[in-house]
Amino acid sequence: MDTNDKNNDKLDQLNFFKTDNSDEKLTTNQGLKIRNNQDSLKDGERGATLLEDFILREKITHFDHERIPERIVHARGSGAHGVFKLSKNMQEFTKAKLFTDLEKETPVFVRFSTVAGSRGSTDLARDVRGFAIKFYTDEGNYDLVGNNIPVFFIQDAMKFPDLVHAVKPEPDNEIPQAASAHDTFWDFISLMPESMHMIMWLMSDRALPRSYRMMEGFGVHSFRFINSEGSAFFVKFHLKPKLGVHSVAWPEAQKISGADPDFHRRDLWEAIESGAFPEWDLGVQIVPEENEFDFDFDLLDPTKIIPEETVPVEIMGTLTLNRNPDNFFAETEQIAFHPGHLIPGIDFTNDPLLQGRLFSYTDTQLSRLGSPNFHEIPINKSVPTVHNNQRDGHMRQQIAKGKVSYEPNSMGGGCPYQAMMSEGGFDTYGERISGTKIRARSESFVEHYSQAKLFYNSQSEPEKTHLQKALVFELSKVTIPAIRERMVSQLNFINKDLAKIVAEKVGVEVKTLEQPNGSIPADADPEALQSEERETSLNSSDALSMKNTVKDSVESRIIAFLVADGCNAARVSELKSKLESKGATVQFVAPEMAPVKSDDGTELTPKHSISSTMSVCFDAVYVAAGSASTQQWLQPDYKNSVVEFVNEAYRHCKAVFFDKETDALFDKTDLTDFHSEDPAVISVKKNDSDDSFITAIASHRVWDFEKHRNGFIK
Ligand code: HDD
């Protein structure tokens, strides 16, 4: 699909608000042209500044007020415009035109985020990622405000402020930033058995995405679809990235946070600028209302998934991001999502976490954006014009004509009048309910460990190792041994080996918890929750392991070409063209930023010098052919850096290609110990072809060789 110039109803609406300073004169906010933007108005050249300097006052006043509160959670984020194109008419299940009109391309804005960190924090925190989509439909805005993890820490919104207080920096010293590895988080979590399933996801590499473009998205809660006959279906939303689900490793994440804290933001921006538009299949798992109780968990419990083996995901269409915002603040920062922004054909369920969210989102915009008129900010405006009797308030934009701002009225001809359902009027699903008011948790929400087990069991060996190491890292930062101990005792309910491994490394013993706190009723036996009946019917689910993800493309992967004077220009150009023809990006890394003179005199312009980047920022490394260039790399100024560059890529299981006449450098690296079956060590000596390199890059990493590559197995 082509791109930035392509317009739609939402982009046309936004265009109306855009300004362009080209060829324009500087003005005040009142449109007055400014003659001198260098000096304030003074009483003589050396005199005091005059209060009457309205130009200075206006400029400074605006500056003084240009910050707004950051989001209370999900403060750090990046967004992009795009479209959703339906491929399957879902009218059997929903009347939402978004999911029934095959002709329509619905404009969207998507914002990705981390949760715990501040607006300026690193992208590579170990954290959940937000995945919020605003669909600008012809029936009004529909927001799907999800995450890259399909379950949540808590079952009831009542606990949300506690969760967020626990994970945010500790209140006395505001440490640590954008990290869950601290006392208060694990204190809370170890007392909340319901969080264990989410903790398995959070400690997995899912919490360290390679790119926003390579993450799944989930609506988390069960929502409802309602068709035109009024029949309802439970649905769970899924977004599956066409590029597959890929992650970086934790030691890399920590280094990237220093080398390029904007790694995900930059990646999204650059991919879209270069025309490599990120795409996801959007699908739903559908459960008819009458099957609500067919599962060994409660569909209303947001700490549970419906395994894809039990209910497959039906793909409805494709979400494509194809345009970067023009202004970060105006668009990405001011966009306001809310799970309660609905359209006919979609409705909520009684999930108690979702119910609380329905209050929180509008409420938070009032302090964040400062006015109930936040819906009038261009990025938040619906495509259909708003007609109602709401009036006034800070920063009101709409000029509502006439005397009438009430209903019923005769003076306005009764307008704006209520829409019938046949005219698109929204009608809440008539769920039959009868109950007694009660502040309690349902028995059906009580079991917390079986899906945590399912997740852990479904991981490949390298994924399990990473998860164990993540827990060890996090709990090693916990200063209070009793919290570490309580946490490993929780892990013991999930997997005894996992608990043992972590306990040993964090210096505590696994103890039987006498009384897991939280939502387990006082009379429940924690061991009984582990009994056979409490196991999920599934032992393992392929969909939960990233090992089984798509690995067929090098599109938008960034390959470091280590080039130095005298390198083989023909080989560099040949491999570069092959990679680029498959959509990969090649960046030259040279000893210095000066152009490199290759063997035939062609100049290669480096994007980085070896001292200004690290291989953690790349997907693969190619060492360009040539004995002269190899000798230059081995000069004392560059040798340590280039060897570390290669070794680090190797340690993190990336494809590394040593071309002809590079042995002298190869011999200095850890690759000399490589396993003969390792498919991502590419060398002309092994008769590997360029295609082997391309296949290795597409497979992302050879995690299975991680232990060999790090010297644990010879
Ligand atoms: Fe939330 C922001 C996702 C539970 C209250 N949430 C926010 C964003 C995402 C989510 C992606 C960022 C939106 C953006 O980019 O602007 N939140 C979730 C998911 C949840 C969840 C998937 C559970 C399934 N959230 C949740 C609960 C509450 C909130 C239970 C409160 C009761 N969330 C908020 C908030 C935020 C927010 C405080 C902060 C900024 C904003 O809303 O606009 O209202």
Which key terms come to mind for this protein?
714 residues; alpha/beta; Catalase HpII,  Chain A, domain 1; Hemocyanin, N-terminal domain; Rossmann fold; 3 domains; six-stranded parallel β-sheet; 19 helices; globular; binds CIS-heme D hydroxychlorin gamma-spirolactone
In total, the number of strands is: 18
Quickly give the CATH architecture of the largest domain. Answer: Beta Barrel
Task: Give the fraction of residues assigned to helices.
Answer: 25-40%
Strand % is: 5-15%
- Residue stretches low in confidence (pLDDT < 50, at least 5 long) are 515-519
User: Domains counted in the coordinates: how many?
Assistant: 3
* Rg for CA atoms: 28 Å
Q: Mean of residue pLDDT?
A: 95
Major pleated sheet: 10 strands, antiparallel
The first-level CATH class of the largest domain is given as Mainly Beta
Shape: globular
Full CATH superfamily name of the largest domain? Catalase core domain
Query: Might you state the CATH topology name of the largest domain?
Result: Catalase HpII,  Chain A, domain 1
- Ligand names: CIS-heme D hydroxychlorin gamma-spirolactone
InterPro entries: Catalase (IPR018028), Catalase_AS (IPR024708), Catalase_clade2 (IPR024712), Catalase_clade2_helical (IPR043156), Catalase_core (IPR011614), Catalase_haem_BS (IPR002226), Catalase_immune_responsive (IPR010582), Catalase_large_C (IPR041399)
Keywords: Heme, Hydrogen peroxide, Iron, Metal-binding, Oxidoreductase, Peroxidase
Family: Belongs to the catalase family. HPII subfamily.
Protein name: Catalase
